[in-house]
Amino acid sequence: MLSALLTVVVPVLLILSLGALAGHKLALDSSTINRLSLYLLTPALALNTLLHTQAKPRELAVLVVSYYLLAGAGVLLGFLAAYRQPDATRRAVMGSVAIGNNGNYGLPVALFALGQAGFDQALVIFLSSVVLTFTAGPLIFGAGGGIGPTLRGVFRLPVVWCVAAALIMRSLHLSLPLGLDRGLGLISGATLPMVLLSLGVQLGTGGRPSLSAPVWLASGLRVAVMPLLAFGIGYLTGLRGLHLQGLVLSSAMPTAVNAFILSKEYRADSDTVASTVLVTTLLSIVGVAVVVPLLGHLP
Questions:
Q1: Is the pTM of this model over 0.70?
Q2: Transmembrane region positions (predicted)?
């Protein structure tokens, strides 16, 4: 556990703290940083990683299915736990439990904990979470308008087209010219520190959390219960080794900032979601330090 703290959590915490300090002192525009990450850095990272990963497509498909089953279990768990809460708060708990920060928190943690091969697993989970967040997310938080508008929103994201391009290139055994490949690698290398700084800026400008009962309920389920569910679901779907480790580690991530953005957009209890994001981010420091040493004991 001490080793996990020093080698996995401390680097992440250091960059988060610098981002929070910069956001508090320099009055940075977090929306600009987020857009840069969403529309440039993350698509470049996805394209570069999928072009070079050694993971087999069938294994990745099972990992994606397992992740979606886990997210569905999180929605159900949040619904049952917050059944007596008002509708907006119940939806806030459901989204906070199901939608984890597998991007600007999960990717660096996976790289430090599991190495490049584990990072490849985490990237696949992150790309799956993007689709989940912007399709199921509005439905969880009570959006109307049907599935059509949400799907159109997903297909506006450059990362979706980068994934499609990478899959086509791999199926045709194509590769980028060396100069383009090196440039793509340079942009990809900037992604992880940038997205961590972005999360730190958001936390530094977010204010104090409201520590209500729904916040503690959602936070406890997200940090403590979801890793146990991830192990059970992953084991039952046949995941073993690095793939099972990647799924369990991803489930230990805090609630995603995008969950707050969606809750505000669709008039759910955004205060509960915002506070859960901050509380789970702090609790996940201990959660990750506990989960990482246990990964080596998984089947």
A1: yes
A2: 32-51, 60-83, 122-141, 153-172, 184-203, 215-236, 242-261, 273-296
